[in-house]
Amino acid sequence: MSRSTPKVVVAHSSAWVIQVWLSFALSVGVTAIGIWHLPVDTWVKSFMAMGLLFSVGSAFSLSKTVRDQHEMEQLGARLDEARVAKMLSEHDPMAPPKL
To answer: By the 8 A CB rule, do 49 and 31 touch?
Structure first.
């Protein structure tokens, strides 16, 4: 019998997922429109657009990396718990000590 608390997995609601994607699309879209309408040369607009794309790409990479690290920590904790449970189930307190 395990004394650890069960892992609770909370799924995101569809409303939350829609709100997150709409927020992302709106922020990138409005920023792109702002860059387009800037009263500067084309090369400055291109440079700012490139910066926007790199920022979005790095944000995706960072969020994926943080998620992957969190999942690996959870997996490691579950493996450690399984090893301890196996050792406890195989232990016989009445067996004579091994020399």
So the answer is: no
Helix (H) or strand (E) holding 57, with range, is helix 42-90
- Are 4 and 74 in contact, with CB atoms under 8 Å apart? no
**In the chain, helix, strand, coil percent, each to 5?**
75, 0, 25
pLDDT digits (tens, 9 = 90+) for 39-61: 999 999 999 999 999 999 999 99
Asked if residue 4 lies in contact with residue 81, where contact means CB atoms within 8 angstroms, the answer is: yes
**DSSP code of residue 89:** H
The pLDDT tens digits of the residues spanning 68-88 come to 888 888 877 777 788 888 877
Quote the pTM value: 0.61
